[in-house]
TrEMBL record:
UniProt biased composition (Low complexity): 1-16
Keyword list, A-Z: Leucine-rich repeat, Repeat
The protein's name in its UniProt record: Protein phosphatase 1 regulatory subunit 7
PROSITE patterns documented for this protein: LRR (PS51450)
InterPro entries: Leu-rich_rpt (IPR001611), Leu-rich_rpt_4 (IPR025875), Leu-rich_rpt_typical-subtyp (IPR003591), LRR_dom_sf (IPR032675)
Region feature (Disordered): 1-20
Amino acid sequence: MEKVVTMESSTTTTATDLEDDESSTLLDLTSYQLHDLDSVELPSNLTELDLTANRLSTLDPRIAQLSDLKNLSLRQNLITDAAVVPLSSWNTLSSLEELVLRDNQLKNIPDVSIFKKLLVFDVSFNEIASLHGVSRVCNTLKELYVSKNEVTKIEEIEHFHQLQILELGSNKLRVMENLQTLVNLQELWLGRNRIKVVNLCGLKCIKKISLQSNRLTSMIGFEGCIALEELYLSHNGITKMEGLSSLANLRVLDVSSNKLTSVDDIHNLTQLEDLWLNDNQIESLEGFAEAVAGSREKLTTIYLENNLCAKSPNYTAILREVFPNIQQIDSDVFS
């Protein structure tokens, strides 16, 4: 089992100081506010180096010699485009599997083509305006995170046939496109963009989708996602529940903060456990039991607050009768 090693002081840290453990392979320097690594000795057998939450503006060239390194985190530093240029020539690190550059000062996708076994690449919370350059990232990638940037177009991702998680939330995307080759994609996170129309480009294996806080007015487009388990569509302009009847594996459905006036097209969803309908325009619970017939036994959580129907004096009692195994109604939790 790997042993976690952290810095004990601001003086020079040696391998002996690191608990005299030659087998230690993880060096965690999180939150030491380091401006450089001059005071740190980097054991040659490191497999993980976590430099999260420091003040680094350059990359220590000694990192390039850590031939066993698998995971490198530079999250929350002061790394710029110029600072990451050396990465493209660090041949010794070609077996790196996880690279985290989240929360820095990048304006472009860095050239990480040298890493031929990369599985996780995170450049979220930067100032990246385009995915140009992501085509150079190796096709072994399983997780790509580019959230909270300035990206306007989904592009250069067609070669990621092994990708399982794609996070592009909080950007400036208007169109869902170029997803059709991501045949193993299981999670797609596109919340806080400007998307108006659902287009999943024929994806079949996807299990989680978030399109919260976009500009959707329709739910049409999910019909073919038969493996879908979680669907998050809150804070849009959706007026009707539709295109859901084929989603037999759906466990979580969030359509809160939309413009719904009724509950429709979910009577066949026998696996539904969480249903979020709060902050809509549903006036009555009349016909509600029939609308949710398929999930009566399975549902454990429902939110309907801030609808007119929730003002009924027997609102909670009705719902508890409809759902015999309910555990939570709005903020009320039942034992």
